[in-house]
Write a structure and sequence with these properties.
Layout (H helix, E strand, L loop, with lengths): L2 H10 L2 H21 L6 H30 L3 H5 L5 H11 L2 H21 L2 H31 L6 H23 L16 E4 L2 E4 H27 L7 H15 L2 H4 L10 H23 L4 H12 L3 H6 L3 H19 L4 H26 L6 H22 L19 H24 L8
Antiparallel strand pairs: 1-2
Length: 450
């Protein structure tokens, strides 16, 4: 057995803890059964307890699985052990949450017993897979958030640990909101009838089966992300192929929902190919923003990339590209294909060109702020700068009734003037040159004192 998993099982699943969890849950189910009423039946209570034990409590334990070792000053010893990244990842994720899954299994047993007695077996099995997926995604997302923070060498206060847990809870809420659309009893959030079919790549699929397959795929990618981040923490190198595979997957997945976008009257004259290219380009642009925030902006690595490219070692340099760089390149490629496909649509081309310019400006801003001298400001200063550029400054401009100046801050739909893209790319080139200059200056040795 995985030594790390075995160690955590010994710590988490002691006889006293197992008995305590079983007795408390049995008393709760017994009390709910005696209380009567639809809202208090054991199956309904089991659902609420499952969300609390596996999702909320489990996400916190997953977030603490590595951070707790750092606080106890035992993480460095574990990093020096012979355990591989896979053993460490699965041992932490499933070992630290083993007690939560034990309690969740008891809740699932009650839910399954009620489901088989009052519903068809297929629906019960589908619901079981959903509950397993939402718990796994919540815990994996919390672990991933904590590993990213460890990589960034952040402190680990109680507030920060709550934020790691919050990442898992946000992932769980997103899963619940999407799954809620296909609930046979009707959506709890929107109060609308259930969605029976989902159109993807021109074909109608059963909504519950499609969403279930999607959950399984995204749960798998979340686990892969945890594993690759653990590899980095254990001083191992990650190649670009896995991220490229994810880019291909997310592009195909997102582009298939063009039928939903075609309902928009503004997109009535766009064909399926244009809508799919636009969806893929938008997804890649969002991934660029996410990854440029999460990944370290290492000036030494950037100088190495520039050096290898200048020497003509393009394959070696391509292997060292960060995830945000590959996402940015994918955004440029698919945006270029969309411009070529909609070459007669001047308004769309202007909007796309301006958007690419502002995207380039924003990611260059992150690199620039990290390359500035003095105390490291981190990504928080860059996020504040983006908040000022996209929220504060436009609000001031609108208040002064200077709406024509909004082209300096973000793309303006409905414009056919090339002034907007020209301004966006002028800002992008200016910030990019400043960032490149700061990265190059930081690499020069300081002058020796007289």
């Amino acid at each position: 057995m995985n030594p790390e998993l075995q160690r955590n099982l010994w710590l988490e699943l002691t006889p006293r803890r197992l008995a305590t969890m079983a007795i408390i849950l049995l008393l709760i189910f017994f009390a709910s059964g005696l209380s009567g009423g639809l809202s208090y039946r054991p199956a309904s209570v089991a659902v609420l307890l499952y969300y609390f034990i596996v999702v909320i409590w489990g996400a916190r334990n997953a977030a603490l699985s590595v951070v707790g070792e750092i606080r106890d000053r035992t993480w460095d010893l574990q990093r020096l052990s012979s355990l591989g990244a896979g053993e460490m990842t699965w041992g932490k994720l499933f070992g630290a949450t083993a007690y939560n899954w034990y309690g969740g299994a008891l809740c699932l047993a009650v839910m399954l017993a009620y489901g088989f007695a009052h519903s068809d077996p297929v629906s019960v099995v589908i619901g079981l897979v959903y509950y397993l997926a939402v718990g796994l995604i919540a815990q994996a997302a919390a672990l991933l958030a904590s590993l990213i923070a460890v990589r960034r060498r952040q402190s680990h206060t109680r507030l920060e640990i709550f934020f790691y847990q919050l990442a898992g809870l946000i992932a769980a809420v997103a899963v619940f909101a999407i799954w809620d659309m296909a609930d046979p009893a009707g959506s709890i959030l929107t109060r609308k009838p259930p969605t029976d079919f989902i159109v993807w790549w021109g074909h109608a699929y059963d909504a519950r089966l499609f969403l279930l397959a999607s959950l399984a795929l995204f749960a798998g990618w979340t686990l892969v992300a945890c594993y690759r981040t653990m590899r980095l923490e254990l001083q191992m190198n990650n190649g670009p192929l896995v991220w490229l595979g994810f880019l291909v997957f997310i592009g195909i997945y997102v582009a298939g929902f063009d039928a939903w976008l075609s309902r928009d009257p503004a997109m009535a004259d766009w064909d399926s190919a244009a809508l799919r290219l636009g969806l893929a380009a938008t997804a890649y642009g969002l991934l660029t923003y996410v990854m440029v925030v999460l990944e370290p902006k290492d000036r030494v690595h950037y100088r190495w990339l520039a050096s290898e490219t200048a020497k003509g070692h393009l394959v070696k340099a391509a292997g060292g590209l960060q995830a945000w760089m590959m996402s940015y390149i994918a955004t440029l490629i698919f945006s270029g294909l969309l411009i070529w496909w909609r070459v007669a649509d001047v308004e769309a081309i202007v909007l796309i060109a301006a958007g690419l310019g502002f995207l380039t400006r924003d990611i260059s801003l992150f690199v620039l702020i990290h390359a500035l001298p003095g105390k490291r400001r981190g990504d928080f200063a860059a996020l504040l700068a983006l908040f000022a550029l996209y929220v504060l400054a436009p609000a001031i401009v609108k208040g002064l009734d200077l709406k024509g100046a909004l082209i300096f801050f973000y793309p303006q739909p409905g414009a056919e003037s090339w002034l907007g893209p020209a301004i966006a790319w002028a800002e992008a080139v200016f910030v990019a040159l400043l960032a490149a200059g700061r990265v190059a200056i930081a690499g020069k040795p300081a002058s020796a004192p007289a």
